[in-house]
Write a structure and sequence with these properties.
The protein has four domains: about 80 residues, no CATH class; about 100 residues, 2-Layer Sandwich (Beta-Lactamase), CATH 3.30.450; about 80 residues, Orthogonal Bundle (Helix Hairpins), CATH 1.10.287.130; about 160 residues, Histidine kinase-like ATPase, C-terminal domain (Heat Shock Protein 90), CATH 3.30.565. The strands form three sheets. It has a five-stranded antiparallel β-sheet with strand order 2-1-5-4-3. The C terminus is likely disordered. It is elongated and about 150 Å long. A hairpin with a 4-residue loop joins β9 and β10. It is α+β, with helices and mostly antiparallel strands.
């Protein structure tokens, strides 16, 4: 009987070893499946798994793996959406850690500070230099959120202005890791507009103050010395008051015109029409002011131009301004030439008013289309100039989609030009 018990024990041992081997293989399969985040497809049959009580465990493991994969995919998709959104915004968005190493930067940051190259992994101080920004970061280090502050950053020789704000965010380096979110909103153009506004207000105040002071002074003299002032002086004083009142009127009208052009670009009514009749009309209007036998005005329009889209009233203003300036500032001219030439390759027509007067100094040419700029300030005021005429001209031509320019050599005359495109374009397009 001993041999029988020995055989049974041996059989049971073999069965147990086989079962252990199957269980070990199943555990290895489960480990591999978990590591690779793939469903478990065991080599053993369902019946075999049922016998060892592992079928339910396999089903539960597969359910956990599928739930994990779905959560991972959802998180990845959400992260991609967030990155796409941050990449599309114009604001500079940078995330950096405690050592000020950049962990994330959107496209705006990379384009502005590195010409489109990645700045991830760089120290913040190596990306841009700004003492005001470093002070903001030091202040933000001890708080969850720092109030927005205006800072300047020198980049490529230019000074850029930003509205900067910081906030703490959860980092990727572990449970207690913390990073800082830096957002920079570019306000460089707003700063430039603010400077322009201050300069404009200062210039307008100065331009208004001079005629108002003259009017006030002569009016007070007429009132205080009414009984003793002689008729000749009275006439001179009232003439001064009238001239400066007219000067104020012209200045206010020019300011209103400039304001309307800037705020209401739809006031430009572009119609396709020939430009030669307008040139001829402007020239005819000024012929009565020419010195007989000493001065003349000419018109030369390229016959190939055809119809051109423009606002007749506004372009008439432009030509009037150019010609009037010649009479006002270069009265000793001998010829004024109104010229229009087709520039086919550029898709536009260059219109010019050319004179042979004393010309404009080279240093003044880049500024003559600026508001209130005068080449000869004293003479301009004496002749009633407001310093806004050429600025109005520039706005009119820009609303047509064109450009203005001036060329001159002292003693050889001046060419004032503007270009009108063949394709009708306005500022509202």
């Amino acid at each position: 009987m001993l041999w029988f018990f020995t055989v049974c024990l041996l059989v049971l041992t073999l069965i147990c070893l086989r079962q252990i081997t199957r269980t070990r293989r199943l555990l290895m399969e489960m480990e591999t499946s978990v590591r690779s985040s793939r469903r478990l497809l065991p080599e053993s049959s369902a019946a075999s798994l049922q016998r060892i009580g592992a079928l339910g465990l396999v089903d539960s493991l597969n359910a956990l793996i599928e739930a994990h994969n779905e959560a991972t995919a959802s998180k990845s998709g959400y992260s991609s959406q967030v990155e796409a959104i941050l990449g599309a915004v114009q604001e500079v968005v940078i995330v950096f850690n405690r050592e000020r190493i950049v962990e994330y930067a959107n496209r705006s940051a990379e384009t502005l500070f590195r010409g489109g190259q990645s700045i991830q992994g760089l120290r913040l101080e190596g990306v841009f230099r700004s003492l005001a920004l470093l002070e903001l970061l030091e202040k933000a280090a001890g708080t969850e959120y720092a109030e927005s502050t205006q800072i300047s950053i020198v980049q490529g020789g230019d000074t850029l202005w930003f509205e900067a704000s910081c906030a703490k965010v959860k980092g990727d380096g572990g449970k207690n890791a913390q990073s800082t979110l830096l957002v920079l909103h570019d306000i460089t153009q707003l700063k430039a507009l603010e400077v322009m506004r201050r300069e404009f207000v200062a210039n307008v105040s100065h331009e208004l103050r001079t005629p108002l002071t003259i009017i006030k002074g002569f009016a007070e003299t007429l009132i205080d010395d009414d009984a003793t002032i002689d008729p000749v002086a009275r006439k001179r004083f009232t003439t001064k008051i009238q001239n400066n009142a007219e000067r104020l009127h012209v200045l206010v009208e020019d300011l209103l015109t400039l304001s309307r052009l800037e705020s209401r670009p739809d006031q430009i009514e572009v119609i396709a029409q020939p430009i030669e009749p307008l040139f001829a009309e402007v020239a005819e209007n000024y012929r009565t002011r020419l010195a007989p036998g000493q001065q003349r005005i000419e018109v030369a329009v390229d016959p190939t131009i055809g119809n051109l889209p423009f606002d007749r009233y506004r372009i008439n203003q432009v030509l009037d301004n150019f010609v009037e300036n010649t009479f006002r500032y270069a009265p000793d001219f001998t010829v004024i030439r109104l010229e229009a030439v087709a520039e086919v390759e550029a898709g536009c027509v260059r219109c010019s008013v050319i004179d042979d007067g004393p010309g404009i100094p080279e240093k003044d040419l880049p500024h003559i289309f600026e508001r209130f700029y005068r080449v000869d300030k004293g003479r301009s005021r004496e002749t009633g100039g407001t310093g806004l005429g050429l600025s109005i001209v520039k706005h009119i031509i820009q609303l047509h989609g064109g450009s203005v320019e001036a060329a001159s050599k002292p003693g050889e005359g001046t060419r004032m030009s503007f270009r009108l495109p063949y394709a009708a374009r306005t500022a509202s397009d």
